Inverse folding.
């Protein structure tokens, strides 16, 4: 592709910001059409998400898994892979952590890290399966990960049913509390909200994401393969190995997310009849965040706030929760159709600074999808 | 005869972060002429043409087309004004046919929504006959030669009714024969009243085809609208670089030593399974430059790939300093002392989204100099790049600029700096001066000769016969995957070489591998 055009299509961080604003505005319009008061709706959304300590704690709880799955998808994107499998890797991570949490009885300072690490490793292995299939069998990672998601779902259900079941219930036994990532101290700090230490783990992972990609030799290779596999091969970089590795790291992030959720929030693994959905939301989070570390956090915060605050809209303004799904869908739509938003930005820019220079910025906002 | 001015660019200024690419540039082009833009790498030629084509907006200045002031806000506006551009890197869809590519975006419709292929094929055939373009509308892009692809690009803009055609270094990727054909096409185009703007570094081409030339240096016009008939290549070169340029490197006679590279009975296949190297054997000795001549597609790419480990050898062996390397990975081979300037700089040579600094360590980022316990020392990486930028005169604000933002010639210089800096025992140089200005060519040629004089071996693959004749100590002619002869450049000429390259025999030069 022409270098000029490549440089031109990536605009600044403006695109996600404008997309969010547009999404909210059109959401408001739809509410008006339904004769709801959008201002009241958004106000009660904010109120619900941040109104008191409890709400803040619960919002953070909502954000936590999205950070992990967002990182997972973003990491794979960086090497040019579309990991739809964060969902499955998340489930595998959580069932593994649940298994460790139930079947072992250890002092907490061993049990917690053991369960967390086991979940991460299991997710990583699950992710690398898709990488191996791609490299050695030529199976496209989208196909492989979609199928692996279903296998993960039923494998998890099987494990729960046959090894961990709480008789008479559709879930596993409760994890021994030595493996919990939550603490009553933290919970009480937030008026009993289910916030847990998984958020710290998420922030550490975000930091690692950044360090791996931008500071290490491995990250250099991964980015090289992502940008230009031909040149990477020429440079002596093992392209296949890097594909498998990136899927593995991607899976580790998702797996840790699953572990954090089961160890921190539920303390048991349910028999799922449908996907919990954090992995799929991770795709949108990564897209919003432009596959960067900080962007992923911001994307997760936005998603967490919107989805958790949505219930507030219902009580505060009588707006159906589904509206918020429309808003979210609109935001994603505008980010994905960034060309459209770019055109709008350009029009506005021209009006504001007519004659000003149009410098192409060197943001990493690119290759989103 | 004074012709009407069709394009006038007045005081165009375009800035990029840290650099003024065009500094109050004036350009006037007359109806029906071939107008050349000449200037060093990074002088701002492509930028100026991208402004004219609507890809960039100028920070200052005005554009007049046929006397009318216009705002070219995007390429569609340029299209409507009858301006078309053939970019240096083609923009075609590989799996589409020629016709599909040409009509893409302006498809003729039948009954409102169905694409009328027959009509478009007919139109394309008429157009290509009119201008002598000779393309098969039904062929797939991936199956046709680079020269043919370029003609498709030309057809694409003619099909949209352009009468001002911009060409950005069209001959850089062509073989000598294709260049001749392109020049004929140019003449046909102006005969039909088209106007051509041509960016090229090849002074010979300017002398042979152009009416007038505008010379740019570091963003400023040095000489606007010089009549080509009133100038000489030497004068052009001097004006463009600001000093005298030597077209021929001085070099002492080669003192070849022991063989560095021995290729023995190698056979290899291309991606489609066609045999491209057929039991080929030759040697490159320490202290010599072996040139490989040949019509494009006779196995050059495969030869480069098998030596650098990017393609498996079906049979035969390759020795570097008497040790086999044909089973080693590209990295091992590179660590054994093989440098490689690849023929396609954007596909293989560079990662355009990486900074110059990151590109400069593409081959050795993993070595202790830059890498410690799994971490890259970016400070060292940047210092390393800064040193090479200075040494190789790469025109850029600094080393953190993305390689993709460099001018074409400066991208090439990044690769050359990286590969020569390793001081490899064997340097494979494939089209090393593609897209470079005359000054930079002289510089690169000197570096290659220096390598040779340091008792290193250089394998030079080039489509430019002048370059081969100038630089090589011996020239091997590649034809259908075999070496059909090795000649002494002092005892041969372009004509004889050309004959051998097309499979014929000649009397000059010695035979045998
Ligand atoms: N998109 C961009 N972003 C930043 N800098 C750019 C961009 N495009 C060009 N430049 C800079 O502008 C200057 C002029 O570049 P340009 O591509 O016009 O040179 P050129 O005359 O075409 O050179 P060459 O002969 O090497 O192709 C260079 O210094 C280049 O690095
Ligand atoms: Mg250029």
């Amino acid at each position: 592709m022409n270098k000029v055009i490549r440089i031109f299509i990536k605009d600044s961080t403006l695109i996600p910001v404008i997309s969010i604003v547009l999404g909210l505005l059109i959401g408001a319009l739809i509410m008006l059409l339904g004769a709801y008061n959008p201002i009241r709706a958004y106000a009660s959304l904010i109120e619900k998400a941040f109104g008191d300590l409890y709400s803040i704690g619960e919002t953070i709880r909502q954000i936590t898994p999205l950070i992990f799955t967002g990182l997972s998808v973003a990491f794979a994107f960086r090497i040019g892979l579309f990991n739809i499998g964060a969902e499955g890797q998340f489930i595998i991570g959580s069932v593994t952590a649940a298994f460790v949490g139930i079947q072992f009885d250890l002092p907490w300072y061993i049990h917690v890290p053991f369960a967390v690490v086991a979940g991460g490793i299991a997710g990583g292995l699950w992710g690398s399966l898709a990488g191996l299939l791609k490299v050695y069998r030529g199976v496209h990672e989208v196909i492989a990960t979609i199928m692996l998601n279903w296998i993960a779902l039923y494998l998890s259900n099987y494990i729960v049913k046959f090894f961990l079941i709480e008789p008479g219930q559709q879930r596993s036994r409760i994890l021994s509390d030595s493996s919990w990532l939550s603490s009553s101290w933290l919970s009480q700090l937030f008026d009993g909200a289910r916030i847990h230490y998984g958020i710290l783990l998420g922030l550490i992972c975000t930091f690692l994401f950044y360090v791996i990609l931008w500071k290490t030799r491995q990250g250099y290779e991964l980015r090289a393969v992502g940008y230009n596999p031909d040149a990477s091969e020429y440079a002596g970089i093992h392209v296949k190995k890097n594909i498998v590795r990136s899927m593995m790291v991607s899976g580790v992030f998702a797996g840790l997310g699953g572990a954090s959720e089961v160890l921190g929030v539920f303390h048991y693994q349910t028999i799922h009849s449908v996907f919990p959905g954090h992995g799929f939301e991770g795709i949108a989070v990564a897209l919003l965040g432009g596959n960067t570390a900080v962007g992923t956090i911001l994307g997760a915060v936005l998603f967490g706030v919107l989805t958790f605050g949505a219930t507030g809209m219902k009580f505060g303004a009588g707006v159906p929760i589904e509206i918020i799904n429309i808003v979210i869908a609109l935001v994603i739509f505008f980010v994905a159709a960034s060309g459209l938003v770019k055109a709008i930005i350009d029009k506005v820019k021209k009006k504001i600074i007519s004659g000003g220079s149009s410098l192409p910025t060197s943001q990493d906002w690119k290759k989103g999808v | 005869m004074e012709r009407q001015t069709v394009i006038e660019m007045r005081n165009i200024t375009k800035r990029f972060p840290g650099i003024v690419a065009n500094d109050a540039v004036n350009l006037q082009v007359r109806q029906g002429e071939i107008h050349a833009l000449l200037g060093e790498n990074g002088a701002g030629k492509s930028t100026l043409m991208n402004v004219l084509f609507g890809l960039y907006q100028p920070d200052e200045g005005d554009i007049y087309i046929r006397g009318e002031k216009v705002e070219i806000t995007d390429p569609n506006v340029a299209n409507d004004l009858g301006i078309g551009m053939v970019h240096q890197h083609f923009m075609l869809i590989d799996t589409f046919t020629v016709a599909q590519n040409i009509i893409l975006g302006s498809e003729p419709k039948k009954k409102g929504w169905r694409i009328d292929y027959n009509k478009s094929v007919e139109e394309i055939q008429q157009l290509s006959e009119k201008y002598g373009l000779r393309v098969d509308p039904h062929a797939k892009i991936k199956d046709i030669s680079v020269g043919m692809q370029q003609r498709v690009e030309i057809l694409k803009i003619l099909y949209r009714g352009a009468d001002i055609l911009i060409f950005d270094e069209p001959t850089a990727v062509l073989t000598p024969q294709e260049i001749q054909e392109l020049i004929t096409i140019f003449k046909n185009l102006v005969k039909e009243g088209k106007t051509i703007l041509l960016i090229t570094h090849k002074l010979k081409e300017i002398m042979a085809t152009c009416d007038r030339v505008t010379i740019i240096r570091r963003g400023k016009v040095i000489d606007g609208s010089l009549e080509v008939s009133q100038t000489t290549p030497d004068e052009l070169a001097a004006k463009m670089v600001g000093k005298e340029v030597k077209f021929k490197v001085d070099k002492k006679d080669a003192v070849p030593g022991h063989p560095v590279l021995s290729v023995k009975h190698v056979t290899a296949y291309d991606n489609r399974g066609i045999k491209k190297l057929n039991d080929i054997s030759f040697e490159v000795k320490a202290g010599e430059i072996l040139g490989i001549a040949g019509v494009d597609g006779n196995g050059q790419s495969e030869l480069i790939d098998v030596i650098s480990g990017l393609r498996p050898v079906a049979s035969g062996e390759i020795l570097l300093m008497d040790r086999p390397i044909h089973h080693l990975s590209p990295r091992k081979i590179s660590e054994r002392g093989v440098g490689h300037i690849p023929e396609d700089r954007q596909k293989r040579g560079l990662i355009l989204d990486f900074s110059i600094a990151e590109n400069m360590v593409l081959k050795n980022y993993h070595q202790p100099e830059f890498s410690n316990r799994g971490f890259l020392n970016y400070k060292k990486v940047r210092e390393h790049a800064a040193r090479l930028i200075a040494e190789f005169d790469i025109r850029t604000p600094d080393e953190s600029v993305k390689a993709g933002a460099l001018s074409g010639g400066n991208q090439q210089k990044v690769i050359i700096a990286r590969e020569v800096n390793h001081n490899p025992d064997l340097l494979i140089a494939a089209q090393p001066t593609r897209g470079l200005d005359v000054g930079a060519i002289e510089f690169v040629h000197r570096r290659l000769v220096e390598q040779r004089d340091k008792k290193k071996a250089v394998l030079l693959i080039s489509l430019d016969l002048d370059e081969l004749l100038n630089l090589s100590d011996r020239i091997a002619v590649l034809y259908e995957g075999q070496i059909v002869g090795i000649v002494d450049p002092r005892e041969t000429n372009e004509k004889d070489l050309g004959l051998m390259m097309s499979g014929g025999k000649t009397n000059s030069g010695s035979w045998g591998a």
About this structure: The first helix of chain A runs from residue 3 to 9.
